[in-house]
């Protein structure tokens, strides 16, 4: 329930002026809300009809189509509709298209190069500090398709970051 509906429900007992003052809303906003109730109901009904058409197109695509493709399909059927409205309705009914991830190839292995030996022997435990260290490189994506590289070295005994 929103604040305007609360005022509408209790206005006979307490009055609009008092309720709007308590709820910190302008009386003109309440009266505007009440005056446009029919328009909101019509928009909700139109969105419900649109949601049914979106579900049908989404189902036909086996759940793969997202906002751009569903918008194109509906426009091909003669519907004049904005992609933002399609996105809003899809969010409200819980539909989303399949997002394909791009695979980023960050290194190209040399097949002739010798493989690095496994010095830890797959044993990632250490009884004393400063005896075994492991490292890792992580690629953090940035805007524009670039990457930031984060390299870490961890002491296996204390599990603390060494560098």
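^ Assign residues to that structure.
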């Amino acid at each position: 329930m929103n604040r305007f509906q609360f005022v509408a429900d209790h206005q006979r007992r307490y009055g609009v002026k008092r309720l709007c003052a308590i709820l910190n809303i302008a009386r003109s906003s309440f009266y505007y809300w009440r005056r446009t109730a029919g328009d909101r109901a019509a928009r909700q009904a139109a969105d419900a009809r649109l949601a049914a058409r979106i579900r049908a197109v989404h189902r036909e695509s086996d759940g793969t189509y997202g906002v751009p493709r569903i918008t194109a399909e509906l426009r091909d059927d003669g519907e004049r509709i904005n992609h933002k409205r399609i996105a809003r309705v899809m969010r409200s009914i819980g539909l989303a298209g399949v997002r394909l991830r791009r695979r980023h190839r960050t290194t190209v292995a040399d097949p002739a190069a010798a493989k690095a030996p496994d010095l830890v022997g797959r044993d990632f435990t250490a009884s004393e500090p400063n005896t075994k260290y492991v490292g890792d490189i992580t690629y953090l994506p940035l805007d524009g398709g670039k990457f930031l590289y984060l390299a870490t070295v961890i002491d296996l005994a204390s599990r603390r970051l060494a560098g």
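The beta strands are 133-141, 147-155.
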